Amino acid sequence: MNKIVIIGGGGHAKVLIDIFNMSGQYEIMGILDTQRETGLSILNIPVLGNDDLLEGLYKKGIKNACIAIGSINDNSKRKMLYKRVKQIGFSIPFLTHPQAIISRNARISEGVQVMAGVVIHAESLIEENTIINTGSIVEHDCYISRHVHICPGVVISGGCKINEGAFIGAGSTIIQGIKIGKNVTVGAGSVVIRDVADGSKVMGVPAK
Fold first, then answer.
1. Do residues 53 and 47 lie in contact, with contact meaning Cβ atoms separated by under 8 Å?
2. CA-to-CA distance for 96 and 88, rounded, in angstroms?
3. Three-state secondary structure call for residue 89
4. CA-CA distance, 18 to 41, in Å (whole number)?
5. d(CA 160, CA 137)
């Protein structure tokens, strides 16, 4: 098995550890977390220390990393870590839960994390370091850019475009053909029926 280090030791990390254990493709060497005590065990995986260990671990032959930090409204920390890890030289694998359904005609990029119950349909593109969280649906011909978080239970209808850094809250629905701008926040449970400009925060039914 390939060796991998996990960055982040919170709830999102626990979900990813489950995916690793089910896939059997990687041996988790440990967790790096700035807020967890060194030596602590999370689902039987030891906390090795903080992010300062990354360069040393890479030199010791651990060439894969997983960014296990979720996001609430702000994806900037995930983006920063992704860039740092790539600069060191790590590979960041695409991870998918075995109970997700992904079309053979969809395209999934490095560092994307697809959770249980997700459905991604034909001709959709998911770019780097994006989370498609539990039970979400990405219909045909969608484009989801880098560093996006699609929260649990979201429905993205066909032909939508979700730009970099967007945060789509749990249970939201985006109707067909909508464009969501960069760094947009869509509140939980919203229904988006018109395009949303860069940097906006919208919520409600319909979202505004």
1. no
2. 24
3. coil
4. 15
5. 12
Longest dimension (CA), the chain: 52
78, amino acid identity: R
Which of 98, 111, 164, 168 has the alpha carbon at shortest distance from 138? 168
161: which 2 tokens?
């475009």
pLDDT tier, 74 (very low <50, low <70, confident <90, very high otherwise): confident
Q: What does pTM read for this prediction?
A: 0.95
Residue 97: active-site member: no
Closest by Cα among 56, 77, 65, 74 to 31 = 65
Catalytic residue among 12, 121, 140, 149: 140
User: For residue 196, is pLDDT > 80?
Assistant: yes
Residue 1 has pLDDT above 80, yes or no: no
What distances in angstroms separate CA 48 from CA 31, 53, 64, 175, one per listed residue?
6, 8, 16, 44
Query: Across the chain, what does the average pLDDT equal?
Result: 96
CA–CA distance, 74 with 114 (Å, rounded to integer): 19
Tokens for 104, please give them.
């053979």
Instruction: Spell out the domains of the chain, with CATH numbers in brackets.
Output: 2-88 (3.40.50.20), 94-208 (2.160.10.10)
C-alpha separations of 179 from 1, 74, 163, 183, 193 in Å: 40, 19, 8, 12, 10
- What is the pLDDT, as a whole number, of residue 73? 81
Can you tell me the mean pLDDT for 42-69?
96
**Separation of alpha carbons 139 and 102, rounded Å:** 10
